[in-house]
User: What shape does this take?
Amino acid sequence: MSKPNTMNLLIVEDDDNFREVAVAWMRRMGHQVEEAANAQEALILFENKYFQVAIFDMNMPGVSGLELLQRLKSDGVETQILILTGQATVENAVEAMKMGACDYLTKPFPMADLEHRCLLAHDRWSLQKENRQLKTVIARNQPEKRMIGESKPMRDILQLIERVGPTDKSVLIQGESGTGKELVAQAIHRASEVRSEKPLVTVNCAALPEQLVESELFGHEKGSFTGATAAKSGLFEVADGGTLFIDEIGEMPLSLQPKLLRVLEDGSFRRVGSHLERRVNVRIVVATNRDLSEEVAEGKFREDLYYRINVMSLVIPPLRERGQDIDLLLDHFLAPDWSVQDDARQVMRQFSWPGNVRQLINALERATILAEGRLITIEDLPLEVVDSSDSQDIQNRSESVRRLDSMERAHIIEVLKEEQGNKARAARILGIHRRKLYRLLERFEIDETDYRF
Ligand SMILES: Nc1ncnc2c1ncn2[C@@H]1O[C@H](COP(=O)(O)OP(=O)(O)OP(=O)(O)O)[C@@H](O)[C@H]1O
Ligand SMILES: [Mg+2]
Assistant: This one.
């Protein structure tokens, strides 16, 4: 690229005399310069070369400098464009700036001034470029998501992660569904200086058939069971040096728990069907949305394993107990040009969010589909959320909720028709409780005449 303080410049000017002087001056100052006598020539140059800075004369026969500017800006060029005006056309300079010109000069002016203004434009170009690069670097380096939340419980959790992350302690993460347990596990892994360079491997006990959990975790030898056509290393081996995140640990088969306990204690284990003892160095993070102490009391979870994984326990409070985070999450997950109406925010703050952050994200996604004009109002929110509001004012806004209601009403009628009016089956298909269906029938004033012929 160019040396510091030199730039790559295009001068578009129909006045041959002026253009030649300007080109000569800029070249003498060490800049790389191309020239064009009109807009058409300039466009051809733009198609073949990249310019950091360009100077357009405002008044040229044919396509004016202003039109050229407009055209290039709508094509999204990054080039910084300066406009030159005569005394008589100064007012147009304002318009040029509005269209995206970075500066303008009124003729006549000393060449040194022109160069100085071009250098300022070049600085601006560099800054914008750097900004674009930083953005892509940031986007690429943070595939893991940031934890949002500034409520007291959330700050405590973030602090705990920073404290416990660098140690090799096992961590038990507890919290309702959708509270961010997996996110916390990722943050713990990242907070470990030695392990963060190594893999974080996740296994979900609930997602695996019981017979497969053992071979997933510990691997197997060829022929050790039907279907084991080749030897395979287990996730403990894959995670060696790093972290193994065992999700839904409460679902871990009781028969497998002694084997897990052993690998936690000294890192040793055997693959399924092998007599060979192996050793790994793996840090364990586990999560559950059950109360493990209760499971222990009921004999569904081994007490010794419970104490071994519960060295450090982290409880994520449900979203309804950290209401102030809701606003932060809304602002985080909404695109910058979207907004949420005050009463919609209020309703969301009051809702109990049984599905926690995941449910909030889903509600928001749905709302952005339903919303008009990038503004989320209560009519875009799921009915269950709005229904739960204790504000009379909001309840009374049936008018605005109508639009959504009519869609839902039509859908319910359609399902009822298909099921010949059988409400139990219709409710099942709609994925709602039968009582809820009756409430919706009330609310939407649906009666038999609507779905029976
Ligand atoms: N504090 C937070 N900040 C930003 N995003 C969050 C936060 N908490 C949760 N999320 C997002 O919510 C969703 C659910 O989080 P996650 O999968 O970690 O929950 P979970 O507790 O593991 O749920 P489950 O018990 O259902 O497995 C994810 O998309 C996650 O990125
Ligand atoms: Mg999870």
